[in-house]
Amino acid sequence: MSRTRPGEDVYGRPLRRLLLGILCAVLVALVLLWRIDNPRAERLRAGLVDRVVPSFEWALVPITWGGRLIEDFEGYARVYDQNQELRRELQQMKAWREAAIQLEQENARLLDLNNVQLSPDLTFVTGVVLTDSGSPFRRSVLLNVGASDGIRDGWAAMDGLGLVGRIAGVGERTARVILLTDGNSRIPVTIQPSGKRAILAGDTTAAPALDFVENPEDVRAGDRIVTSGDGGVFPPDLLVGQVVRGADGRLRVRLSADTNRLEYLRVLRTRPAREIESTGDLIAPPAGPVQGPVRPEPAPDATAEGDG
Fold first, then answer.
1. Which range marks the domain in which residue 42 is found?
2. Does this model's pTM top 0.70?
3. Which of 35, 47, 139, 173 could form a disulfide with 146 if both were Cys (CB 3.0 to 4.6 A apart)?
């Protein structure tokens, strides 16, 4: 272990005190010099600055380098913020891209559906969905069209893709539509391309069940479901959806219409079937003109007329 020599302790402390006193005196003199308001003192200060400051350029190098480092750090911080902003915009662009793809697919389906020609006898009234009165036990919506627009009970209601339900309750300016998913909904349908008949039964789920299917083994997932027109409930060949196999193993229908996002519905005016007044028109057509020579009728007897 090193020990301090006695001579160093004797001369070291007074020397340090002397240097500290000289430094304090110089600093006090500089303060007083800068505080004196005198032309000579001003010239002295200017000369001192001209001689001392240029020789201290080496001391300003770290300060300059530190200032540039701070500026570079601020620039990197701005670049980082811009990068984060670009990342957020990229995420938004990806979301918009997905939305655009979905809209493009929906537009393609709508264009494809426009090629389906319905019966020329079917006209429709477009209504806006006012409220959705759905519940765990009921599925229905309210339209802003009613009896004043010629709406009647039982008419079919569709959106832009497929059948939604039927009119069940008409007011003067409003009408209620029971959706296909309602527990009280029962409509006859046809399964294409097999042509099998069935009953689409709503059970308050998004995919109604198919009941009373003829030969269920002939029905496959993806088969097209349309209305059959049996019983005059709905016009025939209205698109309903596609067959799917439910988790419970039952045949169900994935509706073409999005019943969770209904905004506009069109109510199809169904013309009543022409009544047949006589069975003769049903069995044979009415008699046409007689072909060949026609036997003339005998002329009336003039003598008999004169006697009368």
1. 13-52
2. no
3. 173
